[in-house]
Amino acid sequence: MNAVVALIAAVAVLLVPVPTARHRLRLPRPRAPARSRPQRPRRADPLVLAAGWDLLAAGMRAGLPVPVIVRAVAVEVGGTARRTLDEVADHLALGCDAATGWEPALRDPDTAELARAARRTARTGSALADVAAELADRARSRGSDLAEARAQRGAVWISAPLGLCFLPAFLCLGVLPVVLGLLAQLPIAPL
User: What topology does the record note for this protein and the membrane (predicted)?
Assistant: First the structure.
């Protein structure tokens, strides 16, 4: 009789879960996506910009029309600078003066320096090719500085875990035996 009652109780427990267990078995509701901060557009790779400015300088020295060169540079650099330079090429192809034509490039941090130089060379009559070559050299230097900074940060991130692992081993295997050996040689009088 007791065995039958125990069997019925076991079946009842298995078939009728308690409210807390039922709550645990319930699948979680999907959460609303978290609001992300609006991210500012990433700047173009300095080495890609340097290649674009070199292409601009070579095209200017070869005597190609500026809108054609700017379009070729836009394809080379890509990203937000591409849209900006395409817009500049459209303005220049329509016959806008340099101040108006290079205006959209002033708003993009990747092309602002080139736009200022292009507007200045249009006013003064100096060669834009030399300025573009100088901008390419500066962009390469900036790329080199960024790569060096990344390498230094990587060295810190690599050495930190090693330091955390070796410090306890150094204390246990290097310092502690010396301290215990010195303590064993000290004449300590019993109190």
Answer: Multi-pass membrane protein
